[in-house]
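Quick one, C-alpha cells below:
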C-alpha cells in the first residue's frame, strides 16, 4: 500500500490529473496500467515488491485512486470500495460499537438511512434523524445521548437543502462526535468539508467522481491517522474493496472533474432560472437561486452550486409522473452525476426505501441530474415535457 500522501501545492485541476498518476516506470506509458491481478510474486517468503502481497490487501491501481482522492479532498488517507454504501458500512463499523448513537439529517440518501436503520440498529446502535438546517434541533439531538457520529449530507437529496458544515462540525465536536460529510453531490471540486472542520468524507464515486455512469464505487477520506488505521484494517478485514478495473475507470473520470462540474453547474443554473415562475411548478429547488433558503451558506461553503435540481409540480403526483416520463434528452433512470442528463421520480425510485418514514419525499417532486449536453437542448427538453 502506498504511504500517506504528501500535501501537494498544485492546483485542483493539476492534482486531478497527476496525483497518484506517475507514468509506468518500465515502459514509460503515460497512463498507469490497470493491474488486473489477484496476487503478487514474492522474492523469497515475505519478499514483497512495492509492499504488494494479495489483491484484497492492496493493488497499485486501487492505490493510485486512493492517493488521488486523498489529494483532492485534502485528507491524509483515502480508501476506495466497491460502492458508496460499502464505504459507508466500513466507516460505520470502524467508529460504532453496540449502544452508540448516530444523528443524521432527515433527508439523507435513502440507502444511508436504510443501512443504519436496518443493519446497524438491530446490532444495538441508536439513530435519530433531524432537520440539519435547524441548529437547535441538532444541538438537542447530540446532547440527548453520547453521540458517536454526526452525519451530514449537503446539498441533500432530493430537495437540495444546505447544511452549514462549519457550524455543525463545531456542534458535533463539542458533543464528542465524529463529523462525517457525504460529499457526493458537491464533489471535492465544489466543496472541501475537511477544511470546514469535518473529520471524514464519504463518497459514492459512482456519481460525479466517476462521472460517466459506467462504474460503481465508494470512498472514505480521513485526516486522522488512528482512524485511517481502523478503516484500512476493515477495508482488508471485511473486504468490500474496489476492483482494479473499477478503480482505473474512476481515476479516468476524475481527470475531467473540474471541467465537468463547471458545465454541470452552469447548465443547472440556466435551467433553474428558466423554470422559476413556470405555471406548472410550485417550487424549484436549486441552491444557486438567490431565493433558495440555503443560498447564502452554499455561496460561502461551495465554489459552485452543482448539477442537481428538483422541482415540485402544481399538478401533484400524476403530473410529476407524466413529466418524468416525457423528457427525451433527460433519460428516466436512477443515479446522477454522469455526463448525460437523467430524470427521476424520487418517491418511487431513489427514495422508495424511505416511503412511510420521516424521510419520505413528496409525491409531486421530480429530480433532475443535469448533464453536460448543450444547455439549449436541455432547457427545450424540460419545457416541452412540462407542456404535456
Ligand atoms: C448514490 C449515493 C450513495 C450510495 O452510493 P452507491 O455507490 O450507490 O452505493 C450515498 N450517498 C449519496 C448522496 C448518493 O447519491
Amino acid at each position: 500500500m502506498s504511504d500517506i500522501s504528501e500535501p501537494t501545492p498544485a492546483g485542483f485541476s493539476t492534482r486531478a490529473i497527476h496525483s497518484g498518476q506517475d507514468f509506468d516506470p518500465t515502459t514509460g506509458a503515460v497512463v498507469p496500467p490497470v493491474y488486473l491481478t489477484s496476487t503478487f510474486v514474492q522474492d523469497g517468503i515475505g519478499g514483497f515488491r512495492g509492499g504488494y502481497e494479495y489483491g484484497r490487501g492492496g493493488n497499485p491501481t486501487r492505490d493510485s485512486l486512493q492517493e488521488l482522492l486523498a489529494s483532492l479532498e485534502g485528507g491524509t488517507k483515502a480508501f476506495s470500495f466497491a460502492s458508496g454504501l460499502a464505504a459507508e458500512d466500513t466507516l460505520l463499523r470502524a467508529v460504532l460499537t453496540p449502544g452508540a448513537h448516530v444523528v443524521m439529517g432527515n433527508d439523507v440518501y435513502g440507502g444511508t438511512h436504510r443501512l443504519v436503520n436496518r443493519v446497524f440498529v438491530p446490532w444495538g446502535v441508536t439513530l435519530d434523524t433531524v432537520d440539519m438546517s435547524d441548529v437547535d434541533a441538532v444541538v438537542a439531538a447530540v446532547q440527548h445521548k453520547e453521540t458517536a457520529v454526526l452525519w451530514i449530507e449537503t446539498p441533500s437529496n432530493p430537495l437540495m437543502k444546505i447544511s452549514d458544515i462549519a457550524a455543525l462540525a463545531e456542534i458535533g465536536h463539542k458533543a464528542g462526535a465524529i463529523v462525517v460529510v457525504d460529499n457526493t453531490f458537491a464533489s471535492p471540486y465544489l466543496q472541501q468539508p475537511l477544511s470546514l472542520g469535518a473529520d471524514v468524507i464519504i463518497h459514492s464515486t459512482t456519481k460525479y467522481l466517476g462521472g460517466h455512469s459506467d462504474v460503481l464505487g465508494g470512498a472514505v477520506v480521513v485526516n486522522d491517522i488512528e482512524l485511517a488505521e481502523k478503516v484500512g484494517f476493515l477495508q482488508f478485514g471485511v473486504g468490500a474493496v474496489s476492483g482494479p478495473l473499477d478503480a482505473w475507470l474512476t481515476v479516468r473520470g476524475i481527470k475531467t472533474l473540474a471541467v465537468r462540474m463547471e458545465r454541470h453547474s452552469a447548465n443547472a443554473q440556466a435551467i433553474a432560472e428558466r423554470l422559476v415562475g413556470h405555471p406548472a411548478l410550485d417550487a424549484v429547488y436549486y441552491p444557486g437561486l438567490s431565493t433558495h433558503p440555503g443560498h447564502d451558506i452554499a455561496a460561502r461553503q461551495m465554489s459552485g452550486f452543482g448539477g442537481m435540481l428538483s422541482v415540485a409540480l402544481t399538478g401533484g403526483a400524476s403530473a410529476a409522473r407524466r413529466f418524468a416520463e416525457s423528457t427525451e434528452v433527460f433519460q428516466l433512470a436512477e443515479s446522477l452525476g454522469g455526463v448525460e442528463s437523467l430524470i427521476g421520480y424520487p418517491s418511487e425510485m431513489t427514495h422508495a426505501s424511505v416511503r412511510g418514514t420521516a424521510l419520505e419525499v413528496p409525491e409531486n417532486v421530480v429530480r433532475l441530474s443535469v448533464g453536460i449536453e448543450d444547455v439549449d437542448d436541455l432547457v427545450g427538453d424540460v419545457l416541452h415535457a412540462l407542456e404535456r
